[in-house]
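[SOLVED] Need 3D model of a three-part complex

Original post:
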Amino acid sequence: MNSNADDKMTIIAFSGDLDKTLAAFILATTAASMGMQVSIFFTFWGLNIIKKNEGPIKSKGILRKMLNLMNRGGAKRLKLSKFNMAGLGTSMMKKFMKESNMPSVEEMIDMAKEMGVEFIACTTTCGVMGLDEDAFIPAVDKMAGAATYLNEARNSKINLFI
Amino acid sequence: MNSNADDKMTIIAFSGDLDKTLAAFILATTAASMGMQVSIFFTFWGLNIIKKNEGPIKSKGILRKMLNLMNRGGAKRLKLSKFNMAGLGTSMMKKFMKESNMPSVEEMIDMAKEMGVEFIACTTTCGVMGLDEDAFIPAVDKMAGAATYLNEARNSKINLFI
Amino acid sequence: MNSNADDKMTIIAFSGDLDKTLAAFILATTAASMGMQVSIFFTFWGLNIIKKNEGPIKSKGILRKMLNLMNRGGAKRLKLSKFNMAGLGTSMMKKFMKESNMPSVEEMIDMAKEMGVEFIACTTTCGVMGLDEDAFIPAVDKMAGAATYLNEARNSKINLFI
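Solution:
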């Protein structure tokens, strides 16, 4: 692990809202383009960002199947934290993003990976929600817990909870 | 106060949502187990986490009594930030936590205190909401304002607003 | 730019909720009064905090006009993230703030400016939402993107995403 704290940033992606996800990825890709080493820890609703867009999400037990059906996830299904308005606000925002030549979340994920941003899925919340590696896109580098995050964060210059 | 910034973490617990509270306490207890010195500043809705579970919350004036009735608080009354679904999603999450052997928020509070995590209630929001020390569980170490927080945060390696 | 990291704090004001805005400004003004150099980056819904309270917000295209009509903004129109209750909770909170001699957001903006807090509007989200400098109060020092934020944050002791 790099001991030069000036070169690192960590982001905890907790919410999985479209707008907060955009903020997280704009910061992550910009930091990477500036030569910083960036790690994103996906936890709770933030796991939705890295869930597969297609196919069923396997999970054990009826209640967890229900949760993962309602909380479907996938980068293209994220919704705004405000003004979602049954999807209307979210569609509008995606249209505005396209017109402004801003990449979609899916494109930002690809960009981030090309730039070497590390994707970590939180083992603890995966356990609670009944998710394993199969639920996620290949962009995810590893599954790890709070200790891994804290070790990176204590060696980073910028740490954000988004 | 310890001047070794590498050893410290501060968390502002603002939201009081069950899921964000779990994230805050998992990070706080893991950091403490790694030898870090951790302070949690409870403010706004985050004060609900440290309100007594039982008995009335005293406060001055009818409006503040109403606020503290609606915004009852207590670690066992926290709700999810998403998918609360009139309490159904929150109950389901608590069930999943139990099945995964994850401690409840009440248990995490006890664990955090045993590990020396410092609990600070924000005087400013207590003032606005008409709350005093009597409203809180004994786990709270002191009431203090933003200057106290900032002094700890500027000497900490990790600072999160949750 | 100051290279003494101990003297700086950055805040990303993302949400534009009344309660989170109060937290951000209490921290910013207290830090400034302690001699710290503070920058606030207003982005997404946080741009509402620095929108003009009066007059129309110009923006290109019918959809963006609709967005800026619904998402009107202005410091005096901010709402609570919880317990807004069709404005009732927000009014109650403003009353409590007044009774506790806490300044309003508008007053905090003035205080922050007098203390030298830097206000930066995020160019990227301004682009997406069709906003330009005319939409904002004169307190805004400049418009800039993520790279400007990251350069300040990597040289700061405290970085918060609110």
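Edit: Chain B has a mean pLDDT of 92.
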